[in-house]
Amino acid sequence: MKKIQLHWQILIALVLGVVFGLYFGGYVSYISWMGDLFLRGLRMVIVPLILTSIISGVANIGNAENLGRLGLKTMGYYVMTSIIAILTGLFFVNILKPGVGADLGFSQEVEGIADSGRSLGETLINIVPTNIFDAFSTGSMLSIIFFSVLFGFFITKIKDKPRRIMTDFFNATFDVMMKITMFIIKFTPYGVFGIVALQVSKAPDFGVLVQRMGIYMLTVLLALFVHFVISLPLLTKFIGKVNPVKHFRAVTTPLLTAFSTSSSSATLPLTMTAVEKNDGVSNKITSFTLPLGATINMDGTALYECVAAIFIAQAYGVDLTFFQQIIVVITALLASIGAAGIPMAGMVMITVILSAVGLPLEGIGLILSVDRILDMFRTATNVWSDSCGAVIIAKSEGEKLKV
Ligand code: ASP
């Protein structure tokens, strides 16, 4: 029998969860453990995943001898477009407020948020941990990220032999963590079933729940649309002096592949071929920018992380201060850099942002059910941004392109 694809499994689980929650709400404790177990699994991987992903990422970039002008330009483009994407998401989620007033049955008290009420100075100082193991065990994401970046950076500064050993070690550990994460992701349908059934049975008004989820999806899609159709083409046109429509035609195949596979990494060979053959970018530029882009430049993911985290805060009735929203922006950027180019990596990363601003992890329960659908759109946006970056950088290096 042909295996049903993960996104169909999740969709079926979603429907079954809703039916169970609506009609068998009294028995929900028999199945809600599946959701708990799934969330525990995600929690288990998050710290080692972030740690190894950032360390190996930073150590590898430092290794590439390319980290000269081209590297700086590329990184500059990646950070800039990701921030534009996040701000677009922030704008729409604050205007449309998909979570506000939605009584989603979240009964849990939000305690952690209290300590995010600290002053800016205090929070910044606390990024430097006094005890890194304490930071690991309490899941203080900003401190863990800070430590990982430092660690990765200084790996590149040690002697050749130990540097290679350390880089290989962290690359390998990261691969193992990825495998464990993929293994846990396979259980998403069960998690969705358990969580959705529980939430639906608790939700005072199912109609409101559906409506809110609809507005949430709309917010993500609208913001992605603006970034895809307006921001990136404008950058391509004015900074790259490239016709965005022609460039879009050149990369339709990778974009469709990204959409259907939800994986920028799996799409990478197609992106490279299209940008080289159809846009006329040299292999020197594509072989540096595109693989790097597929792993760290994820505009769609960054935007999604920001909208999702603020949606969850809104649903919990937590009013994030301006400063807390800045923390969301920064962690969304880091989370998108840390996310791997595989399906649903972005979902795992939301836990980083939730921990950073002190929101309960259970909040991802609901968005989990629609994550896979939104993943298709954000992955296409990720690949579109990578390809725009490649042509812009090629142009800035004086290359003559076909578009
Ligand atoms: N699926 C995305 C990608 O491969 C990552 C994510 O889950 O947001 O680009």
Question: Describe it for me?
Answer:
By secondary structure, this protein is mainly α. It has one domain (6-396): Proton glutamate symport protein (Orthogonal Bundle), CATH 1.10.3860.10. It has 17 helices and no strands. The chain has helices at 6-23, 32-63, 69-96, 120-126, 132-138, 141-155, 160-185, 188-202, 206-238, 244-250, 252-261, 264-277, 283-296, 299-315, 322-338, 345-357, 364-396. It is globular and about 65 Å long. The model is unreliable at 110-116 (pLDDT under 50). Aspartic acid binds at residues 262-264, 298, 301, 339, 341-346, 375, 378-379, 382.
Jot down its keywords.
403 residues, single chain, 17 helices, globular
Q: What's a concise summary of this model?
A:
The protein is mainly alpha-helical and about 400 residues long.
Helix content: over 70%
- Please tell me the total number of domains: 1
Strand content: under 5%
- Overall pLDDT score: 86
Number of helices: 17
**Alpha carbon gap, first and last residue:** 46 Å
What small molecules does the structure contain?
aspartic acid
Beta strand count: 0
CATH class: Mainly Alpha
What would the principal axes of the Cα set say about the shape? Answer: globular
The CATH topology turns out to be Proton glutamate symport protein
* Rg for CA atoms: 21 Å
